[in-house]
Amino acid sequence: MPQDAFTIYHTAKELNYKLKNARIDRINQPEKDTVVFFVRTNNKNEKLIISANAENARVCLTDCQKEAPLQAPSFCMLLRKHLSHAVIESFSTIPYERILTVNFSTKNEMFESGVKTLYVEIMGKYSNMTLVENGKILGAVKQSQSIEGLRPIFPGVKYVLPAPQDKIELSDQTLSLNAIENFTGSDFANYIFNRFKGLAKSTATEIVYRFFNKHDVSESDVKNIKITDFYKHFKDFYELCNYNPCVCMEDGIKDFYVTDYLSVPLKKSYYDSISSAIDNFFNFKESKKEFSEKIRKLTDAVRAKEKKVRKKYQIALEKIIACEDMQNLRIYGELIIANLYRIESGKSEVVLENYYTEGMKPITVKMDPLLSPKENAEKYFKKYDKEKKTLNAVKPQVKELEEELKYLQSLYDEIDLCKEIYDITEVEEELIGEGILKSGKKEKKNKKPTPYRTYQFNGYEIFVGRNNLQNTRLTSSAERNDMWLHTKDYHSAHVIIKSRNGVVPDEVLLFAAEICAYYSKASASDKVPVDYTLKKYVKRPAGLPLGMVYYTDNKTILVTPNNHLK
Asked: Rounded to whole angstroms, how far apart are CA atoms 259 and 16?
């Protein structure tokens, strides 16, 4: 992205115009390297977000709601101490560097006026924000000791700017003209990028493209122009750029620009301010990352639970296998009792006629020579009783564990069906409620449930559950004569058509069935069987896992998945 000195310079100009003389009302630090200032300006409330995140460093106004932690981090407490009710004097930048400064007019406990400066370094993994007064550091979101290759950044030391790049500053006309004149090679844009400070490669490409009206600019092209004309064009673009903020699209959001980069031939969305373009870009990027991380977190939690359940299941199966010869133990005991008169004590084994088999075939029965024949029989009977009790206890456990594994598989399917952060919320709640995931946040009182997916078609209302929790709630709340839909043999959303006395036209049923198929495990298939029946034929016995039901009197329709979103 062109988060270069050029972009930061114009961002600072816009913020200075909008927030000069704004008063700080409140300060939060929702993430370890991100601070939000709630400010009041021109009788309007605004939120200024400043981030030193390695991937998402930025300074802009934001509409995003970021939840503050229950306990404020130390850097947030420092900012509150020094900047609460302060007034923003100005935004500016260090010339041709990716450093934006915010100057604050403050008053101390003795009501003495002062000025404090927040230096925001937007430099990838080296991004930082440092609060400075009279040249001395009061604190920084990322502190470091004085070691080789690093500046000392901790309270009390003098703030020193990062070492500048060994490049030319555009303000130096003589060096700039000489550099342009001495160009040799076949890629002028890349040359400008490597020789001049403050430019991303895309910005350098745009400057060259706008002057030559083409991408590939060679040495001969440069020799045929008036060098001073290009320099003026270069300087005017950098300092007097006409704002037309936009976000570039390519399989989602790709980049943002202060103005329309004509050299980038991709679809763009335009905004009325640089801040709104930056905010939209990073909100999308952060939401996408948050979505991926939440999906991974939920999947890992289910996988860990599945591992424990499968271990229990394996142990239970092994116990059942161990009880397979249970009936033989009973037979051995009965055969010994039937032959007590002929079995001598002290034998390690005896051969007896097995009257449970055809022809009474002889069978060898192991004996404990230290026990009497009667005691050996009792030993076999006791072992038989023990294994019988074990089997009676384990069989229901196996059934329960199989149901639990089936439920866990439905959770995998449910997570796969999540399309956005909104969909994950109740899946997360479901896992917390089932004890699969620990709750990391304090539960809000009177929290409103996530709304169902809702459709209107030919005058009929159609509701679609997003997850097991919603599926259970939706099905339970439906009326007896509402139409209920679910894919046959696949995990899917529960779908309810609000029918009129059990009457649903075929076209409405088809529409709803296509939606049901789309929000199912079989969404990638061409043809998906969808069962439908009246809600009164759908039952959910007590103890059944969330989202699972039994239904009867159903019919099946074959459809192509379609979410019907325009």
From this structure: 18
Rounded distance between C-alpha atoms, residue 421 and residue 427, angstroms: 10
| Last residue in a domain, options 420, 447, 474 | 447
Virtual CA dihedral for 422, 425, 426, 432, nearest 10 degrees? 170
Q: Which residue has the tokens 């020799």?
A: 223
DSSP 261: -
Residues 465 and 425 reside in one and the same domain:
no
Confidence of residue 447 (pLDDT cuts 50, 70, 90): low
Query: Do 19 and 125 sit in the same domain of this protein?
Result: yes
**pTM across the whole model:** 0.73
Contact residues for 421 (Cβ-Cβ < 8 A; gap 6+): 287, 290, 291, 294
Predicted local confidence at residue 156, as pLDDT = 93
- Amino acid identity of residue 120, one-letter, is V
pLDDT at 4 (0 to 100) = 93
Residue with tokens 């500048």: 164
Burial letters 346-361, b for 16+ CB under 10 A, else e: eeeebebebeeeeeee
Domain stops at, among 275, 292, 327 = 275
Please indicate, yes or no, whether residues 201 and 320 belong to a single structural domain of this protein. Answer: no
pLDDT in tens, 134-190: 999 999 999 887 665 678 899 999 999 998 889 999 999 999 999 999 999 889 999
| Cβ contact 39:19 at 8 Å | yes
| Residue length of the chain | 566
Give the domain CATH number at 100: 2.30.310.10
- Per the structure, the count of domains in the chain is 4
Give the structural domain span for 10.
5-140
Same-domain pairing of 419 and 321: yes
| 422 and 350 assigned to the same domain | yes
The Cα–Cα gap between 52 and 118 comes to 12
Asked if the structure places residue 436 within a domain, the reply is yes
| pLDDT above 90 coverage of the chain, percent | 64
Main-chain dihedrals φ then ψ at residue 327, nearest 5 degrees: -65, -30
Residues 197-246: tens digit of each pLDDT: 999 999 999 999 999 999 999 999 999 999 999 999 999 999 999 999 99
31 and 112 inside one domain: yes
Cα torsion through 544, 548, 554, 556, rounded to 10: -160
CA distances (Å), 299 to each of 148, 410, 425, 436, 443, in order?
42, 12, 14, 11, 22
Same domain membership, residue 434 and residue 330: yes
259 domain residue, yes or no: yes
Residue carrying the six token digits 């039994």:
550
User: Does residue 327 have a pLDDT over 80?
Assistant: yes
pLDDT tens digits, residue range 515-566? 999 998 888 898 999 999 999 999 988 877 788 889 999 999 999 999 998 6
SS (H, E, C) 390-415: HHHHHHHHHHHHHHHHHHHHHHHHHH
